[in-house]
Amino acid sequence: MQAGENYAAQPNSKPGDPKFQDLSGPDGKPDGKIDNFDRTILGSANPKFIYGVTNTFNYKNFDLSVFVHGSVGNKLLNMSRMNLEWNRTTESLKRWTPSNPNTDIPRNGFYYSKYGGYVNSHFIENASFLRMRNVTLGYTVPANSKIFQSLRLYATVENLFTITKYSGWDPEVDTKGYESNSTGGQTANAGAGLDFNSYPSMRSFTIGVNLNF
Description:
Layout: E1 49-59, E2 62-72, E3 75-78, H1 79-84, E4 124-126, E5 129-141, E6 150-164, E7 194-195, E8 204-212
Parallel strand pairs: 3-7
Antiparallel strand pairs: 1-2, 2-5, 3-4, 5-6, 6-8
């Protein structure tokens, strides 16, 4: 909370529970209650723009190709963090206690309180990123007409590195795309921007030979 923001006490809340801002009421003004009128948009799963750069460099018999891409302005709900932070990771050691009140990690057991499972800004993260998607270095052996027409040796690395402020495994994920069903599952579009136990993009190494006789 910052100076000037409206905050109303949450019924049945306890010290160390997440705090929610009193944004509005039935008449469009803060009414001293935390209810459905205080819901607000915390971000968009759609980036403001995406970008990519690819290029190939050549020097004598060597060639180097790179592909970099990323996105800017998109947000992710880190549901993995929501489920783990309260009592399953080392971050939980920083949680609120009477002797440790100055922290942004809620108290032990908050997840089972009335407000504990509500989505809030604490778990919405900036998912902008820059990723070195592909790097390939090759060397072409001078032609030898008696043995082969061309010979190229190369090595490729996929997902060499990623630069991001996102605290999860991978900012380029969307793992909450359930099929619609009678139990209330979500479609992929409705579940965009949710990271729940996602598997990160693999880093892979490839060594190859292109040989023509």
